[in-house]
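seq/struct pair 1
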Amino acid sequence: MKNKHYLLGALAALILPAVCLSCDDDKESWSAVDGNDPVLALESTELGSRLGRTVNIKGKVTDADGLRYIKLQCLPLYLDKTIDIVDIYGEALTEYDLDYKISSDLTEAGDIFDITVTAVDVLGKETSAKVRIDMNGDVDDPVFAIAPAEEITVVLKEAAELELSFTVTDDRGLGSVEVAVPEIQFSDIVTEFADPCEYTYARTISFPASNADYTMNVAVADKAGHKVERVCVIHVSDTPDFAKMWLADVASAQELNSDVMGVPMLISHTGQFTYEARYYNEAAGTQIYFLPQRTDFKPLCYGLDPADNTRITGDAATAKPFVLDQAKMYYHITFNILTRSYSIDTYSPAEAVVPYPHTFGAMEMDQWEDGSELTEFWFGYTTEGPGNIKRFTQDADNPCLFRLDETISLNAGNHSGFIIHNYHSDGWWNYCTWRADNEFDPEHAGYYGKAKNPAWKEPMADDIWFKPPVPADGKYTLTFDAHLGHIKIVPAK
C-alpha cells in the first residue's frame, strides 16, 4: 500500500583530510584507539521545509577508532538509509562531513517528522541524535522588495539630508529592521509592524554639511531569526561625479528590483560629469529617466527641468521624463550633470552594428571550418553548451533584437549560470557567444566569439558566465539586444 508520506534522499558528502585506519573488511577486525563513542555534531536539529523544497541534514562526525556507517531513519517516512563508509571508501575514516539532502513530496504539508541520525564506529559503539523537520517551518530569508542602493549620493546644498526609503517583506513575519550609520552615531531599530509581512522604512537622515563618505548598515531579520544585511556607501558631495548611471524605462521602484538583470540599464560614463546612453525604442511615447542609484528613483533622478526643458535636473520631486516619440529607432543621448546640458539623436536598426558573423537563421555557418558543409546559423540561451540551447526568435523590425518565446523557470538565489551561444550539433564551443562583465552582478553582455562581423570593433569579453541574483521563485522572460549587449530578464506577465 502506498503511504501518503514519502521522502526522496540524495547523498552529497565531502570527506575532509582524515586518518584512515588499516582494516581487513572481510574479517571485520579493527584495533581500538580510544574506545570512545562517536561524536555527532549536527549543524541544526530543527529544520524547516516546504512543499517541493530540499532540506540538508548536515554535520561533522568524528571517531578515533574509525567510523563504520551512518544511518538515517524515520519510520513514518519509510526512510532507512545507511551510509556504509567502509563499503563506499574502502576503509574506516576518523572524520566525515555529513550532507544528506531530503526533498519533500507534495503530500507532506504541515507535518512534523523526527529523523534519527546514528553514527556507528568499527567497535560497534554508537551515538544518535534526532533532527526535527517541520514541513510548515520558516525557511526563507526576508527580502528587500525595494532595496537601498549599494552607493547613494547626497547632494550637498544648504544641508546634507538623505531621504532613505526601502521596502522589506517576509512570508512568515518580520522581526526587526535596523539602520545604522556609525560615523554620525545614527541608529534606528524597528520591531513593531502594522503589516507583519511587509514594511516600508522611510526616514530622513541628516549628515554634516561637508564632503565626506559614510557607511550605512541595514539589517533585516524575520521572526525565525533569518537575516539579510546590506552595506551602503553614502557619498555627501557638492559636485558629485557618479561612477555609474542607469537608464530607467519603468514606472516604479518595484520594477527596478524585481528583475533578474537588465533593469535599469547601465549606460556609459564617458568623462567627468558626462554620460552616454543608447536605447532601442520599440513604441512611441516611452518615458525614461537617468538614475545614479539603480534600486530607486530617489534620492536623485535626472530628467528634464520643468522650468526649462532644454536642460536637465536631478531633483527627483520635479524632474520630468524624456519622452521618446520615434518608434523602432535607436536613441543616442548624451548629457552632463554639471552643465545640465544634453543632446539627442537617433539611428535605425539597419545602421546598428552587431558582432555576430552571419545572418541569423541562414545556412551560412561553416560546420567543420573546412568548407565541406554549411549549416544553419542561430544562437540562444544555454546553461550547458552548444548542443543544448533554447533558440532565440529574431525581432521582425530589428535584426539586433532577440527574444526567448518560452519563459524561464528560476528559483530565488543566484542563477546557476548561463551564456548566449550559437548552436552546434557536435559541441563546437565559442564560435559565436556572449559573456558577462561580472559573474554575480552582470550588467553587460560582451562578445566572446571566435568568429565576428569585421565591422565590430569592441574589445573581446572575458570568459565569465552570467550568474545574476534571482529575487524570487517564478517564471521570467528574456530579451537580448546584440547591438547594445543588453540582456533583460524580468518576471513574466
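seq/struct pair 2
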Amino acid sequence: MNELRVGLLGLGTIGTGVARILLEQQELIARRLGRRLRLVAAADRDLARDRGLDLAGVRLAEDAAAVVTADDVDLVVELIGGYEPARSFVMTALEHGKHVVTANKALIAKHGEELFPLAASRQLAIGFEASVGGGIPCLKALREGLAANAVESVYGILNGTCNYILTRMEREGTPFDDVLRDAQQLGYAEADPTFDIEGIDTAHKLSILAAMAFGARIRFDDVFTEGIDRITPSDIESTRELGYRIKLLGIAKPHGDSIEMRVHPTLVPMSSPLANVSDSYNAVMVSGDFVENTMYFGRGAGERPTASAVVADIMDIARVHPDGVRFLAPPMGFVEGERREMATMPMADVECEYYVRLMVRDEPGVIASVTSILADQRISLEAIIQKERHATRNVPVVMLTHETREGNLQAAMARITSLEAVEEDVLILRKEQFDA
C-alpha cells in the first residue's frame, strides 16, 4: 500500500489535532483511501512541550523551511496562521512541487489570488476547507454539492467568539465588556480579540465564500465591516421584544456584475434557523436557484473540528496524488481562467431595513424633528418606540424603518446627530428577512 507523506508546520492547537488524527486514525483512513497517510516531519518553535502524542516516528524541526523543502514530503500542511511567514512557506512548498493544505483564512483571503495560479501552473492542489467554518464542510458544499446552481445569496455566522458573546449577553443581560473578559478567560477569545469582535475574521471568511459562490476573484479589502462592541443588553432586549435576535452576519449577494459583501451585527427574525445558532457554533446558509435554501451547521473552531477538516482535505488530495489535480474540483469551484473580476457594490447602494437607537432629550418636538429628517430622505418607519425616561431626563428611542438605501439613511443620521436634542451617537443595525 503506497503512502502520501505529510509535513506539518505548526504544532499548536490545530496542529496537534491534525497530528493526533494522522497518528491515531491510520487504519480508518487507510480503509477509506486504499493507501496510507504518514506524518513524516513536523516543525514548531517549541518542541519541548508535551502534547500528549507519541511523535517517535516523526522528524521534528524548529526550522519550518527544513520541512517545506524536504525530499520525503509530498504535502505540506500550513498551520502557522497570519500572513507571513505563512505565505512564504506556502509559496516555497508549491515551488518545490508539494501540495498544500491550510486552515489559514487570512492567508487565503489576502494572498489566495497569488497562490492559486501558481498551484494550477504546477498541477498542484491547495486545500483550505478548514479556513471557513472549522469542521463544517461549507466550502466543499459550495464547490461540489451546489455546483449546478447559480448561487443567489450567502449568509453566515462565521465567528464563534462573537456568537458566544451575543448569546451570553442575551441570556444573562451581561454587558459586552464583562462577557468578553469571561470569553478570554475561557479561551473562546484571544488576548487581543480585535480580529474577532471587529468583524475582520468574519470578513476574511466571507470574502472566500463570496468568491467561490459567484466565480469571482477574492476581494477581502472591499468587504464592509462593523463589529459588535457597541451592542448593549438593552439593544438585545429591544430587538427580542420586536421578534428579532442580533447575530454578527457575513452577507453576500450578486447584483449583475457586482457583489454585495458586508459584515455587521444584524437583526435576524426569530423564525429563521440562523437565529437559533447559539454559543460558539457557526452556520452558513446558501440559496441556489435550483436547490433553494440549504444550511450547514457545526463547530466553527477548536482542535478537533478544524483538524477533521484539514485531514479531509489531505485525504481528497491523496486520492489523486500523483496522478494529477485535474481529477479534483478547482479550489475556488470554477476553472481558474473562468473566474471574473467583479466589482464590489458600494455600501451606499445597499438596500435593507434598519433598527435605529438614539438617546434624545425629553422635550416637545424632538421626535417630530427626527421623523421630518427621515421623511426628507424618503425613509418611512415601520415602528417607533419610546422607552422609559432615564434619570438624566434623556429618552431612548428605537425606530424600525422600511426598506431604504444605506446612503439615504446615513445622510439622515448625519443630520439627526447634529440636532442639539440628540445626546449620543445613534446605533444603526441592519435587518435581514429570510425566505421561509
